[in-house]
Amino acid sequence: MSVELVALVVLVAVFALSAIRNVHMGALALVAALLVGVLVVGESLDDVLGGFPVDALLILLGITYLFGIARETGVIDWLVDRSVGLIGDRVALIPWAMFVIGTLVACLGTSHAAFTIVPIAMSLAHKHKIHSTMMGIVMSSAIVGGALAPTSINGITVMTVARASGIPYNPGLMFGLSVGINTVVVLVAFFLFGGRELIARTRAAGAARASASAPAGGVGGAHGTGAGHGSSGAAVLTAPATATRLGAYQLVVLVSIPVLIVGFFTITLLDVDLNLGAVALTLAVFLAFVKPDVGRASLARVDWNTILLLGGIITYVGVLTRLGAIDQLGEVARSVSSPLLAAFVICVIAGLVSAFASTIGILGALIPLAVPLLVPGGGLEMTGFIYALAISASLVDCAPFGTTGATIVASGVEEDRPRLYRHLTRWGLSMVVIGPVVTLLLFVVPFLWA
Predict the structure, then answer these.
(1) How far apart are CA 9 and CA 253, in angstroms?
(2) pLDDT exceeds cutoff 60 at 282
(3) Which of 13, 124, 216, 377 is deepest in the core (most CB within 10 A)?
(4) Residue 396 domain-assigned?
(5) Which domain range does residue 42 map to?
(6) DSSP readout, 294-324?
(7) From the CB of residue 203, how many other CB atoms can be counted at a distance below 10 Å?
(8) Quick count: other Cβ atoms within 10 Å of Cβ 293?
């Protein structure tokens, strides 16, 4: 058995042992990376640990610490309460509003900036009794949809690699297809995870509001306490009473959120190499310095469990990548006699690896492998295969093994995290196959018949 195959078998064993013995997958993967990298591959310990995703974990640490302070001080609750007044009783619109906002923010330089929206979205979901999985998929779709814009790092990377490989590429079309596919994903998730109930609550609230404003002789007690019921029996949400005014420290915490977003956009435009997590951590440490007791209490809100999970998985995938196992999988795909089947295999590999590692990295590695399929005589010339490949690698990002999914799980309410983790794992891994099937049928197959 080759070393590459041994490493792939160990990765499968990590998943199996984690499920069977209920051992933390991140810790198991980190130990496996050390054992396989040092004992089997012959790498030095420094080389193995060099694959530890410090940048990604710094994002998780900084974001969850800063928003942990915002939660600890009641700022997140204040924002959520204020949102009730703005949104009113139209709860069915909340997921779509967050999808639009997240997509717009993800377009501007780096999709990581949209991570600042995730804790607010998950808090809104908890406040309005919206299924956390629905909101998690909404935010993941917003982030990955906007990430392929020509103004975002992922979109710029795909465009650069494609053009360097001599592949025709339209960045505007890529962005439009990405947003379109992710809108469909959100629509499916909306109805799978309680969308009909949200619509029923919205309609019931509208009916209660109309009844309350009707002339005397109608339904009494029109003071809008939120106790009205629709046909589903769900309580109607109404605007809260006048929100409590924020104190001076809470105002500083509140201001830190837009400062984080604007500051990161500014340093991105100035081409300063600075991690979003570093900016968030700087703000969090400043706030902790002002009130040390709040800073200490907020550390408990950092999701160290998810940080360890992400670190272990990506470290092991780094061993696989340096070993050449990923490249060998790509070569196997290129050796398949049917170009369409080869395209499917490459898209599946892209999705599977992207679920555990860098989407940009896997696209940079696999797009060049697609060139033999796209050149004249390759069988897929002038098709949308590159678009299918990029979207397939992005749709899986809601899985909690990558930065996006891990941030979503870490931002969820503590009691929802186990369920959210399970659901996003199943959803993300299902996209490994569903994504390539749908995108190839839409963007590749029609051109084969043209």
Answers:
(1) 47
(2) yes
(3) 124
(4) yes
(5) 3-50+89-193+303-449
(6) HHHHHHTTS-HHHHHHHHHHHHHHHHHHHHT
(7) 17
(8) 9
In degrees and rounded to multiples of 5, residue 406 shows phi and psi of -65, -40
Q: Report how many domains make up the chain.
A: 1
Q: Quick check: 213 pLDDT over 60?
A: yes
Q: Is residue 418 part of a domain?
A: yes
Q: Tell me: pLDDT of 410 over 50.
A: yes
Tokens of 129: 């009794």
Q: Band the pLDDT of 54: cuts 50, 70, 90.
A: confident
Distance CA 38, CA 58 (A): 26
Prediction pTM value: 0.70
SS3 category, 235: strand
The answer to whether 43 and 13 have CB atoms below 8 angstroms apart is no
- Give the angle subtended at the CA of 379 by the CAs of 377 and 384, to the nearest 5°: 120
Collapse the DSSP code of 205 into the 3-class scheme (helix H, G, I; strand E, B; otherwise coil) and give the result.
Answer: helix
Confidence of residue 336 (pLDDT cuts 50, 70, 90): low
Encode 138-176 in three state secondary structure: HHHHHHHHHHCCCCEHHHHHHHHHHHHCCCCCCHHHHHH
Separation between Cα atoms, residue 266 and residue 108, nearest integer Å: 11
Residue 79, C-beta contacts closer than 8 angstroms, at least 6 positions apart: 120, 123, 254
Tell me, yes or no, whether 72 lies in a domain: no
